[in-house]
Amino acid sequence: MAQQFVETIKIVNGKTQALAYHQERMERTICKFFPSLCNASMPSLEKLINPTESMDFYKARVVYGEQGVEAVEYAPYFIRNINSLQVVADDTITYGYKSTDRSRLNALVAQKGNRDDIIIVKHGLLTDTSFTNLAIFDGKHWVTPRHPLLPGTKRAALLDKGMIQEADITLEDLRNANKVSLFNAMIEFGEREIAMENVHF
């Protein structure tokens, strides 16, 4: 099956959010996997996405592959209710580019039991949840894993603004944290925070 990748862009009141970060990641992915498309005819998300004023809180899903952009879809977005997390380990998982193939992630999610989602640990260090980047609050600073599975667009923006810091985060660091924040292109920093009593090891 041909490889496909996706960008999920937040639309608020008819306006796209953080488009430059998504464009940069899409271009980096295309140049890595489809070098024949890595030229002046690179797709432009600004031209591809045409939100309407009625889209108050929507996501635009742009799917692309070796033939270029294959689909642009719009749908209302509802933030998942995440209140508990299960720590799981996988030392071989990779998801460095936003592929439509989430089979390895889904296999780990199957280990969550009655928790709402997972925190994935690789070689003893925190990475991501199944669908967001994360940061822990150590009492002074918000710290995000130095090596996430997928470097997200919201994570990049938060780092650029100095709102979070990168570090290697161990399980001991997680146990000593005050709380965990989950964020991605659709979920703002601070919208989903998990108390430590709801993080299960």
From TrEMBL:
The keyword Lyase applies. Keywords: Lyase. It comes from the Bacteria. One of its GO terms (molecular function) is lyase activity. InterPro entries: Aminotrans_IV (IPR001544), Aminotransferase-like (IPR036038), BCAT-like_C (IPR043132), BCAT-like_N (IPR043131). The keyword Lyase applies. This is 4-amino-4-deoxychorismate lyase.
